[in-house]
Design a protein that fits this description.
By secondary structure, the protein is of the alpha+beta class. It contains 9 helices and 4 strands, in the order αααβαβαβααβαα. Helix 3 runs antiparallel to helix 5. Bound molecules: flavin mononucleotide (FMN).
Length: 188
């Protein structure tokens, strides 16, 4: 048994990174099994599901409970494609914004990041795919604030794409590998 464990560790180190954890069930399954979806397909998200997903963002923790965020839910395909060109019909983009320039308002950015993660996980817990994006944020803040109707003085911080996904994909087959825990975790 020990030999087998040692071999597994050596092989994994040889690969440069440990494979993604095995798919796990139980109450924490949706939190542990997440992956950044690439397998979106077209198809509408029922309003009740979308509302539950956005509620998860609203429920996120924030420093001093200041809740600095605004959630702009983009379902209009033409507008969504201006932000993320790969968006498919029925996908929703949830743009999280806060007062400031979206770059130097560090405290608000951390709060918005937590809200983004809550949305990302809630979507996957409900059986949808989700992916967090910051790549399009500069473009949004340069030219799309008014198209999106962001609140005055706000800049976009992060966005989450949510949508239906093709069957047969899970975190084991879809997620990228992670660095070995031994390089990043210290127990004292
Ligand atoms: C802050 C942040 C910004 C990201 N921005 C982008 C992006 O602009 N475009 C993109 O395709 N993916 C983006 N991603 C997704 C990451 O590439 C993905 O989460 C990472 O590769 C891990 O994927 P996995 O969980 O499926 O293994 C972003 C993720 C985070 C957390």
């Amino acid at each position: 048994m020990k030999k087998y464990l040692l071999l597994t560790v050596i092989l994994s180190m040889g690969m440069g990174a440990f494979p993604v954890f095995a798919q796990q069930g139980g109450p924490a399954g949706a939190i542990i099994n997440h992956y950044a979806a690439n397998n979106f397909v077209a198809g509408a998200i029922p309003a009740a599901d979308l509302d539950r997903i956005v509620q998860a963002g609203i429920r996120a923790p924030s420093a001093r409970n200041r809740q600095p965020w605004h959630f702009t839910v983009v379902q209009n395909l033409a507008l969504a494609k201006k932000v993320v060109p790969q968006t498919l019909d029925g996908n929703a983009l949830i743009v999280i914004s806060a007062a400031g320039d979206g770059k130097t308002n560090g405290a608000e950015i951390l709060d918005c990041a937590l809200a983004a993660q809550s949305i990302y996980l809630a979507a996957q817990a409900l059986g949808y795919g989700s992916r967090i994006y910051t790549g399009p944020i500069d473009g949004v803040n340069r030219g799309l604030k008014s198209d999106l109707g962001l609140p005055g003085g706000h800049s976009a911080v992060v966005l989450i794409r949510v949508g239906k996904i093709s069957a047969g994909t899970d975190a084991v087959s879809a997620a990228s590998s992670r660095k070995p825990a031994g390089n990043m975790v210290t127990y004292k």
